[in-house]
Design brief:
Blueprint (H helix, E strand, L loop, with lengths): L1 H23 L4 E3 L2 H9 L6 E3 L7 H10 L4 E4 L5 H16 L3 E3 L1 H10 L9 H15 L1
Parallel strand pairs: 1-2, 1-3, 3-4
């Protein structure tokens, strides 16, 4: 069983490492809120982060903020729950209309690994800790 947890942890770390590299290159990342930002920093992902839900921001306000960065691509990393998935779909369409590429590769990779167990980005750090403790407890 610990092999399963170890493989899952390795895949998650690989995705997070690639995400950190992409953000370090200057690609902005969109998360839902401040707790998501803190989690990304704790997981080693730091760079230009745009919060989707700060100060009552609408989707159009969010798109304008993304546009103002001048970026041609933006990483979308919204929550894994139903509302997060809805926002992802709508935001993706709006960005594509503005000729900004919405990168959902990281979201899909994370969701495929934790979708049933983690409902939001802020839960990723504690999930990683749980995985580590299950691995060390089974070793």
């Amino acid at each position: 069983m610990s092999t399963h947890f170890r493989q899952k942890e390795e895949k998650l770390e690989e995705i997070l490492e690639h995400l950190a590299e992409e953000v370090a290159k200057g690609t902005p990342i969109v998360v839902e809120g401040a707790k998501d930002l803190k989690t990304l920093i704790a997981l080693g992902v730091a760079g230009r982060v745009i919060s989707a839900k700060s100060a009552g921001k609408s989707l159009l306000d969010l798109v304008s903020e993304i546009e103002s960065t001048g970026a041609r691509e933006v990483i979308l990393l919204l929550d894994f729950d139903r509302r997060g998935r809805e926002w992802m779909g709508r935001l993706k369409q709006l960005l594509e209309r503005k000729r900004i590429t919405p990168n959902t590769v990281f979201w899909h990779g994370l969701f495929s690994l934790v979708g049933k167990e983690v409902k939001d980005v802020e839960g990723l750090a504690s999930y990683m800790e749980t995985l580590k403790s299950k691995i060390s407890g089974n070793s």
